Amino acid sequence: MAKVPGFAKAFVGRWRIVKMDVWDSDSLDLIEEAHLTFQGKSDGKIAFGALKGFLDVRYGTREGSACAELLWEGHDENDPSCSRGWAMIGTAGRLVGHFYIHNGDDLGFVCERG
Description:
Helix content: under 10%
Order of helices and strands: EHEEEEEEE
Number of strands: 8
Largest sheet: 8 strands, antiparallel, barrel
Strand order of the largest sheet: 1-2-3-4-5-6-7-8
Strand content: over 45%
Number of domains: 1
């Protein structure tokens, strides 16, 4: 596995999606516990509702804070799906961000470590 860049270390690991616009917690955890997982220097996984996929991550800054720009590809209800989003370290050590589902929902989210 490639060494994780210093800038990315704040994101590495599993983040539990605890809140998402429009979706309640039962919907988020429909198939498995909703999460974002950052691995290595640019890889990761995403799961919420009936969506599951793999991340392609690029680290940078947004509004002066560390940011992870996300592209993902996977399946939503067994149909191929892809999209983009971003995540930043917010207050109280939470991860905050936004997903833009291709031809679908536009969703803000909040994650906690774990």
